[in-house]
Amino acid sequence: MNVYLLIPMIIFNFIIQATVLQHFRIAGILPNTALIIVVTISILYGRKKGILTSFIAGFLQDLFFSKGIGINILIYLSIAYLIGGVENRVFKDNYLTPFLLICLSTFFYHSVYFVLMHFLRHPVNYLFVLKTIVLGETIYNSILGIIFYRIFYNQVYYR
Fold first, then answer.
1. How far is CA 29 from the centre of its chain?
2. How far is CA 56 from CA 14, 23, 34, in A?
3. Residue 14 CB-half CA count within 13 A
4. Which is an annotated Pfam family here (predicted)?
5. What's the rounded mean pLDDT across residues 122-143?
6. In Å, how far from its chain's centre is CA 121?
7. 3-state DSSP call for residue 26?
8. Tell me, what's the pLDDT at 60?
9. Quick one: the chain helix, strand, coil %, rounded to 5?
10. pTM to 2 decimals?
11. Using CA atoms, how far apart are residues 89 and 83, in angstroms rounded to an integer?
């Protein structure tokens, strides 16, 4: 994917996530489309594009929504680095691969986020968040992630 196409796509995703998707909450849960895109790009394009995607998406989320600059960048960079590292070892045409990686990435994202919030002395009730948000968001991200993955996969392999 061309960098000149990737950057506007991430910005467009950020705008959609911050505006339109606010009206598509299920039980108060909003999908993390930035995480879905980071995982998808990392699977299909590798570590380098995944890291670029994660930096831009994380920076935008930190700038507008986070309590500290760098938290989302760090988490997304970690996810992109790990998934980009196994990019050559996974079956890209199997939809179980992105499903599982998005599930694991969502859980990893929230776990690291709340550990960092704890160290920054922000009160967090992790068990409550795990039961009410993380499980629902994992399902929501995984289902939406399959749709995203299908679109990106077709762009890569069926141009």
1. 15
2. 10, 24, 10
3. 20
4. MreD
5. 88
6. 25
7. strand
8. 95
9. 80, 0, 20
10. 0.92
11. 10
Place of tokens 């108060």: 28
pLDDT tens by residue, 35-89: 999 999 999 999 999 999 999 999 999 999 887 789 999 999 999 999 999 988 9
- Residue 29, helix vs strand vs coil: strand
Kindly report the three-state secondary structure assignment for every residue of 66-113.
CCCCCHHHHHHHHHHHHHHHCHHHCCCCCCHHHHHHHHHHHHHHHHHH
